[in-house]
Automatic annotation (TrEMBL):
Name listed for the protein in its UniProt record: Redox-sensing transcriptional repressor Rex
Pfam families in the cross-refs: CoA_binding, Put_DNA-bind_N
Organism in which the protein naturally occurs: Arthrobacter echini
Subcellular locations according to the entry: Cytoplasm
NCBIfam families: PRK05472.2-1, PRK05472.2-2, PRK05472.2-3, PRK05472.2-4, PRK05472.2-5
Keywords (A to Z) from UniProt: Cytoplasm, DNA-binding, NAD, Repressor, Transcription, Transcription regulation
GO molecular function: DNA binding; DNA-binding transcription factor activity
Family to which the UniProt record says this protein belongs: Belongs to the transcriptional regulatory Rex family.
InterPro entries given in the database record: CoA-bd, NAD(P)-bd_dom_sf, Rex_actinobacterial-type, Rex_DNA-bd_C_dom, Tscrpt_rep_Rex, WH-like_DNA-bd_sf, WH_DNA-bd_sf
Entry keyword annotation includes rRNA processing: no
SUPFAM superfamilies, per database record: NAD(P)-binding Rossmann-fold domains (SSF51735), Winged helix' DNA-binding domain (SSF46785)
Role according to the record: Modulates transcription in response to changes in cellular NADH/NAD(+) redox state.
Domain CoA-binding, chain residue ranges per copy: 89-190
Subunit structure: Homodimer.
Name of encoding gene: rex
Length: 230
């Protein structure tokens, strides 16, 4: 999977490192929660605590956006939210097509958090004739044979793949050929794409395996390195 590219903020020459981009999404979620609770200004320590990072890292991350904080006063929460949203591209029009309308695809299509964060679900596509032409929410499911036409008609610029491993690469290739350069894949397979295409993979089984490892470690007695090696 290609690395998440840095983002530009303000000055076109300024580029935000990938690790900072990932943390900006966490800061934005924390800010939205604080604002919902009535917070108007927030210190770097308060925001770092809400986001689960240390304040020096947070200040360094926010420095990529410019200096918006005031010493002793903190950050204007609403303004900082707008700045992070702009840097992440969330003020643009993101039109999402979900490819594969099984249980996962339907759940994603019905998730209200996408719209509130600037992502509109504009198309649903599936290969199952029993699913095609049914409705999920306000959208009709289109046939996979119509994929390219649907993407063009809806002006889709992000695609979500919820398809079996056996067809994931084929569907990915069709998306790329249709001009889609941002793909979120739930298929447990590494997709091959050109350098200009960004693929983010969500592998829930891998995440569960990592959790299982940590849960196992937490339950083991601390036997020390020598005992563990025996």
């Amino acid at each position: 999977m290609p690395d998440l590219p840095g983002l530009h903020a303000g000055d076109p020459a300024r580029r935000i490192p990938p690790a900072s981009v990932a943390r900006l999404t966490i800061y934005l979620r924390a800010l939205n929660s604080l604002i919902a609770d009535g917070t108007e200004r927030v210190s770097s320590e308060e925001l770092a605590d809400a986001a689960g990072v240390n304040s020096p890292i947070l200040r360094k991350d926010l420095s990529h956006l410019g200096s918006y904080g005031t010493r002793g006063v903190g950050y204007d929460a609403q303004f900082l939210t707008r700045q992070i949203s702009s840097a992440l591209g969330l003020t643009l029009d993101w039109r999402v097509a979900i490819i594969g309308v099984g249980n996962l695809g339907r759940a994603l299509a019905g998730y209200p958090g996408f719209v509130s964060r600037g992502f509109g679900i504009v198309a649903l596509v599936d290969a199952d004739q029993l699913v095609v032409d049914t409705e999920v929410g306000y959208l009709r499911v289109s046939a996979v044979d119509e994929l390219e036409a649907v993407l063009e008609r809806t002006r889709t610029n992000i695609a979500v793949l919820c398809v079996p491993t056996s067809v994931a690469q084929e569907m990915c290739d069709r998306l790329v050929d249709a001009g889609i350069s941002s793909i979120l894949s739930f298929a447990p397979v590494v997709l091959q794409v050109p350098d200009h295409v960004q693929v983010r993979k969500v592998d829930m089984s891998t995440e569960l395996q990592i959790l299982a490892y940590h849960a196992q470690r937490a339950q083991e007695p601390d036997l020390g390195p020598i005992s563990r090696a025996q």
